[in-house]
Amino acid sequence: MLPNNSVWLLLNKYRKSFSSIILVLSITFLTPFVAPASSETWIEVAPTKDGQQWWDKGSMQTTESGTKKILTRFKPSRPNGMEQKQQVLFTMEINCENGLFKDTNVNGMPRVRARWVSSDGDLLIDEVINEVCSPKIT
Q1: Are residues 104 and 70 in the same domain?
Q2: Kindly report the CA angle at 83 between 78 and 85, in degrees rounded to 5?
Q3: This prediction's pTM
Q4: Phi and psi dihedrals of 93, rounded to 5?
Q5: Which domain holds residue 52?
Q6: pLDDT band, very low/low/confident/very high, at 20 (cuts 50, 70, 90)
Q7: pLDDT tens digits, residue range 35-59?
Q8: Do 53 and 73 form a contact (C-beta atoms < 8 A)?
């Protein structure tokens, strides 16, 4: 067995390599959903008092279960005198048959336990679902 000083020297020597491996693995496994090489075609739905919403037609994929997966972005409204809030990026999966959706990724962070929900009257989400599920699009 090596003396404590030798162990410390070995750890110090390989610290950069170990850090690099951790970084590469983190990037590989924590990268959010990205559509295969396609051009971005952001389509804005009608804005509401809550803000603006766009969906990326170029990102649309049909999953094995028949749902649609798209990238969306939301820009909240700015009340007078308030600082502009940041846009929020989502990967949204839509069940066109039932009119349900789930956000599987928010600002690059996976939502592993995302559940199917209704829009609960959110006009921006309703419009995204209507457009994505339109026979013209699919």
Answers
A1: yes
A2: 65
A3: 0.68
A4: -110, 135
A5: 42-132
A6: low
A7: 444 567 999 999 999 999 999 999 9
A8: yes
